[in-house]
Write a structure and sequence with these properties.
Elements (H helix, E strand, L loop, with lengths): L5 E10 L7 E6 L21 E3 L1 H8 L7 E5 L7 H12 L5 E5 L4 H6 L6 H5 L4 E4 L19 E4 L19 E5 L2 E5 L6 H16 L26
Parallel strand pairs: 2-4, 4-5, 5-6
Antiparallel strand pairs: 1-2, 1-3, 6-7, 8-9
The structure holds iron/sulfur cluster.
Protein name: Radical SAM protein
GO molecular function: 4 iron, 4 sulfur cluster binding; [formate-C-acetyltransferase]-activating enzyme activity; metal ion binding; ribonucleoside-diphosphate reductase activity, thioredoxin disulfide as acceptor
Keywords: 4Fe-4S, Iron, Iron-sulfur, Metal-binding, S-adenosyl-L-methionine
């Protein structure tokens, strides 16, 4: 199974924080948007991160035999749609899986003017698409979408009747720590980011010399982002 290599910000194998059941997650590097309050601003720049081939990544994400689904996030997955479509095909060649994808674009825009090669193919492989840019003022602390303007599209019936409440259910999040690297997995419930940021700062101050620059991939930074002119997404 071939496809363009992916530029990957992070992966997580086996989590219950990003959709129904036990899932593996891939976050891609690079996003054309600048949503104020973005959970992962360090994944916005279009810079080289980890380059991984779809088949290799499929093996990694399915190393946990209990995984029944994939969640694609970022960064902006649609900018790497061709590679992600190849990943989904490779993974489904090994196991039957549901697939959820987040995007800052609106579904109508993706269908009318795909922003990158492979978007139409990827849309054809998804069970659920959560679309639209994050708006901090509309973050109601509920569901798998980050703010209430974002929509949950069941592109197939597969997860529509599974009992998982994508829009109104309670949020869960997991924090993994590996050395000095912390990764927050999930859409954070109210108050969690503040607690997480202060815990990271406290831990770093104990472990690292003063003045050490923050090079913590996966840790959600909270620095204000420059806003860009509104885009048609
Ligand atoms: S679309 Fe998502 S990753 Fe991109 S800036 Fe907005 S919240 Fe961040």
């Amino acid at each position: 199974m071939t496809g363009p290599a992916l530029n990957v910000a992070a992966t997580r194998v086996g989590t219950h924080a990003l959709g129904p059941g036990r899932r593996s997650v891939v976050w891609v590097q690079g996003c054309p948007f600048r949503c104020p309050g973005c959970l992962a601003p360090e994944w916005i720049p279009d810079r080289a991160a980890r380059h991984a081939h779809p088949a290799e990544l499929a093996d990694e994400l399915l190393a946990d035999p209990g995984v029944t689904g994939l969640t694609l996030s970022g960064g902006e997955p649609m900018t790497q749609a061709g590679g992600l479509a190849a990943l989904v095909r490779a993974a489904r060649g090994r196991r039957d899986l549901s697939v959820i994808c987040f995007t800052g674009y609106r579904l109508e825009r993706l269908r009318a003017r795909p922003p990158a090669p492979g978007v139409t193919e990827l849309l054809g492989l998804l069970d659920v698409l959560i679309d639209g840019r994050y708006v901090a003022g509309l973050d109601d602390g509920k569901g798998l979408r980050g703010s209430s303007n974002q929509r949950v599209h069941h592109l197939t019936p597969r997860l529509a009747g599974c009992g998982y409440d994508f829009t109104g259910g309670p949020r869960t999040a997991e924090i993994t720590v590996d050395g000095t690297t912390a990764l927050l997995v999930g859409v954070p419930p109210p108050g969690l980011l503040t607690a997480f940021d202060s815990a990271v700062r406290e831990t770093r101050s104990r472990l690292l010399p003063p003045g050490t620059p923050d090079a913590t991939p996966g840790a959600p930074g909270r620095a204000p982002l420059p806003t860009r002119p509104r885009e048609d997404n």
